[in-house]
Amino acid sequence: MEAHTNGSPHKWQTWKKRARATIGSAGYLNVLDDEAYAISHRMQNETVFHLLQNAVIEGNAAHLVDQYEPERDGRKAYLALVNWYEGEKQVNSTAEDIRAKLERNFLTTKNPGTEYINKFQMYSKQLDDLGEAYTASKSVSLFLEKITDPDYENVVELCMAQELDLEKCIYQIRSKERRLDRDRSNSRKKGIIVRRNEQDQIPGVVNEKEDNFSSIEYLTDAGYYSIPGPIWSTMTAKEQSKVKQHNSTLRKKKEGIGE
Questions:
Q1: Do 76 and 32 reside in the same domain of the chain?
Q2: Which tens digit of pLDDT belongs to each residue from 113-169?
């Protein structure tokens, strides 16, 4: 069973599902859900207790389970966790925290669509697990309201005009992100092609026709060429060889003069 190490209320529902799945796969789920069964199956109840104790041993919820160590009652330990994390006060506090995270989640030029959507869905699921989910219309409104990247403006307007549900809005945003990614990729490829076609004019690149350099932009005070990595990577092996040859020849001349 995965450890519930920090006792975070936000992770409780996910942990609870995994814990029940683990206990259920061992054939002990009735211990959690049936008091009479737990009493009549003492060894199973103890096994469930030890599973729970091990899962929370280093977390903030350890005391909730440890209080039942004398009788090693797994069912009571489980119910103590449920009452702690699903009590009305705790649920309200947790829901407020999650809503605050939703309010701080934006799709911007620095926060990509995929990350925004994943966080929105994660926080929405946490609210749903707590029984505190937004209405369908509120979810759509909040989702679109937090998209501030101007590249998505038309898509947001489309979703609003057609009154699309949340699933369809998410689909439209994902589709737009893929189109933007393709456009950026194509632009980068075109930029490389343009640079390669204009290599005779690019600073630091050998001019094939004149067999010298077309610019002194990357010529150091010592007479050597220092080509930046991005420019160097666009040059052919022959061009790179000529750059190296120029620097090597100059170096030898300077060494000869020094002698």
A1: yes
A2: 999 999 999 999 888 887 889 999 999 999 999 999 999 999 999 999 999 999 999
Q: Which two tokens stand for residue 21?
A: 């799945």
Distance CA(117)–CA(123), nearest Å, equals: 10
pLDDT at 254: 78
Does residue 203 belong to any structural domain of this protein?
Answer: no
User: Which residue, 22, 66, 28, 21, is CA-closest to 47?
Assistant: 28
Coil, helix or strand for 221? coil
Q: Assess if residue 1 is contained within a domain.
A: no
Burial class (CB in 10 A: 0-12, 13-18, 19+), 23: buried
Distance between CA atoms of residues 238 and 231, nearest Å = 14
pLDDT in tens, 203-235: 444 444 444 344 445 667 677 888 777 677 777
Number of domains in the chain: 3
Helix, strand, coil percent content, the chain, rounded in steps of 5: 65, 5, 30
For 187, half-sphere exposure in the C-beta direction (CA atoms, 13 angstrom radius) is 6
Domain match, 219 and 250 both: yes
DSSP assignment of 45-108 equals: HHHHHHHHHHHHTTSTTHHHHHTTTTTT-HHHHHHHHHHHHHSHHHHHHHHHHHHHHHHT--B-
**Does 41 have pLDDT greater than 90?**
yes
Q: Residue 202 corresponds to which amino acid?
A: I
Q: Residues near 15 by Cβ (< 8 Å), separated by ≥ 6?
A: 2, 4, 55
Residue that is last in its domain, among 86, 106, 141: 86
Q: Are residues 215 and 183 in the same domain?
A: no
Tens digits of per-residue pLDDT, 63-120? 889 999 999 999 999 988 988 888 776 777 788 888 999 999 999 999 999 999 999 9
